């Protein structure tokens, strides 16, 4: 029996893959190449580097070793070795951050046909500004740790929070990404926020403005939009959405810099699966928004918004 009559699986009438015609491949290659080179489709075929997602993610791990010494290091630390540890890791972090900033700035300039702005020197200067802001970020993170301990009886100590709480990890990455965002760094802040989302299912846009002592309990499904403003000592539970109202088709670019997401004032608690939408929506200080509430208008301070208790139907053998 010939190859065309029976293949290697014993199926008659089909030739094995090794003898199939592949003359169509050059044609497909030409079609794909034309789509990319004509800029009809998004691609990165450019003479400038693009930031490395893997190296940007590694910056998070480096930052953990700096911001939480002893927790994520392979060697034991003591007071006498602390400054060496911090200096060594900060130096590596500064070098790596500068390289990724340079790639991000050069790529952005090339994409927008902007003149050269001495990217290497600029990236090093911006990296230095970011480094100088680390003590303030660490102070805010300490308030976030305390808010977690105050808000969750299951949290036994700071070690548990730092090691294992997804909400705290998402806030940690957010505070790094937000600092880069406020410096006007392209691309990198969103890579960081996407990494945190991948790890935790918590989506915080780096452009959001979030105060101190921020606590996300459980966390999966939480969404915080770009133009959200959140005050101090705010607590969110899983599934909370602080989002924008539906936009008309084509309105995205026009509203890009317009406030589209709500403002949450100090000491607010928002329970699971609540949805709060709109740039004009304000939740006043010390208010409580109950679970599953859908809110598109402002409420004043010291207000509770709750759903009525639904009617439950029990069905059993004796009912």
From TrEMBL:
InterPro entries: LbH_SAT, Ser_AcTrfase_N_sf, Trimer_LpxA-like_sf. Gene3D superfamilies: Hexapeptide repeat proteins, serine acetyltransferase, domain 1. Signal peptide: none annotated. Keywords: Acyltransferase, Amino-acid biosynthesis, Transferase. Its EC number is 2.3.1.30. The keyword Protein biosynthesis does not apply. It is an enzyme of class 2 (transferase). GO terms for molecular function: serine O-acetyltransferase activity. GO terms for biological process: cysteine biosynthetic process. The keyword Transcription does not apply. This is Serine O-acetyltransferase. It comes from Candidatus Electrothrix aarhusensis.
């Amino acid at each position: 029996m010939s190859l065309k009559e029976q293949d290697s699986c014993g199926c008659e009438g089909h030739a094995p893959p090794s003898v199939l015609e592949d003359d169509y491949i050059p044609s497909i290659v030409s079609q794909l190449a034309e789509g990319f080179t004509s800029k009809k489709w998004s691609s990165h075929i450019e003479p400038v580097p693009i930031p490395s997602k893997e190296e940007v993610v590694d910056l998070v791990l480096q930052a953990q070793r700096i911001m939480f010494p002893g927790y994520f290091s392979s060697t034991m630390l003591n007071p006498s070795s602390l400054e060496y540890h911090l200096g060594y890791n900060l130096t590596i972090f500064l070098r790596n951050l500068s390289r990724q900033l340079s790639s991000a700035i050069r790529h952005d300039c090339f994409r927008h046909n902007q003149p050269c702005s001495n990217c290497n020197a600029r990236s090093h200067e911006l990296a230095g500004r970011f480094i100088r802001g680390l003590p303030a970020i660490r102070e805010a993170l300490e308030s976030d740790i305390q808010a977690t301990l105050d808000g969750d009886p299951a949290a036994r100590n700071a070690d548990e929070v730092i090691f294992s709480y997804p909400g705290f990890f998402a806030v940690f990455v957010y505070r790094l990404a937000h600092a880069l965002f406020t410096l006007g760094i392209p691309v990198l802040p969103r890579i960081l926020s996407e990494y945190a989302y991948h790890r935790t299912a918590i989506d915080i846009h780096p452009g959001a403005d979030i105060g101190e002592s921020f606590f996300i309990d459980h966390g999966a499904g939480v969404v915080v939009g770009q133009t959200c403003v959140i005050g101090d000592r705010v607590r969110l539970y899983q599934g909370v959405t602080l989002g924008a109202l539906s936009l008309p088709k084509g309105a995205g670019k026009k509203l890009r810099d317009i406030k589209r997401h709500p403002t949450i004032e100090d000491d607010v608690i928002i329970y699971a699966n609540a949805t709060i939408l709109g740039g004009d929506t304000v939740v006043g200080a010390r208010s409580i928004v109950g679970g599953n509430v859908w809110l598109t208008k402002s409420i004043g301070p010291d207000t509770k918004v709750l759903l009525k208790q639904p009617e439950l139907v029990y069905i059993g053998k004796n009912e």
